[in-house]
Amino acid sequence: MLSIIQAAGWPIWPLILCSVIGLxxxxxxxxxxxxxxxxxxxxxxxxxAVTRQSLPAPDVVAKLHDNSVLGQVxxxxxxxxGTDPRMNEAALRLVFENAGRVSVHRLERxxxxxxxxxxxxxxxxxFGTVVGMIEIFGSQAPTGASNPALLAxxxxxxxxxxxxxxxxxxxxxxxxxxxxxxxxxxxxxxEQAAERxxxxxxxxxxxxxxxxxSAATPATPVAASPSA
Length: 228
Prior knowledge:
By secondary structure, the chain is mainly alpha-helical. The protein has a domain at 17-120 and 163-206. 75% of the residues lie in helices and 0% in strands. Helix 5 (58-67) packs antiparallel against helix 6 (69-83) and helix 8 (111-138) packs antiparallel against helix 9 (148-202). The radius of gyration is 32 Å and the shape is rod-shaped.
């Protein structure tokens, strides 16, 4: 491996850095975007069952928040209804929407970096190819003779950097697409869970009694009868 790096020349070092960063990001996202950490299978049904009669205690909501990403979204709705029992449906949907937006943003962490590596690696490989071509042309002497060692080194730099750029870019692009699809799936699951929770939690929202018509409408003055 060391001999390949030496043959590829100094342009290979940015590609090696991209490969190390890309591998670390792929491993981190594989561990973070597991379904049981994002949307556990039976969590929503358990929350619906626990809150069938009344809202849970604050410590239970805190444990739900620490359970998973879905738990954070559901806990946001439970806390909103517990804090403001007169909350209407539009306000509750806004709470779920904001919590879901924050959660999806966290799920997308490092994906832009991985996509950048997938796009930049072929360009870095092309840069190494250009450097190799320059060395190839530099091996040609003005008299027409060529330096075989310098020519071979230039060819090695061009080919190795091109190959390394593709080797890094193709898996990075595949994992980027894979993780993007998983984030979209989790976002849809969070949205559907919030849709199920909204009518369930609205049962605990207090209804403001309408004002009496007599209080809302001013009294009609009675005309005085004409004197005889």
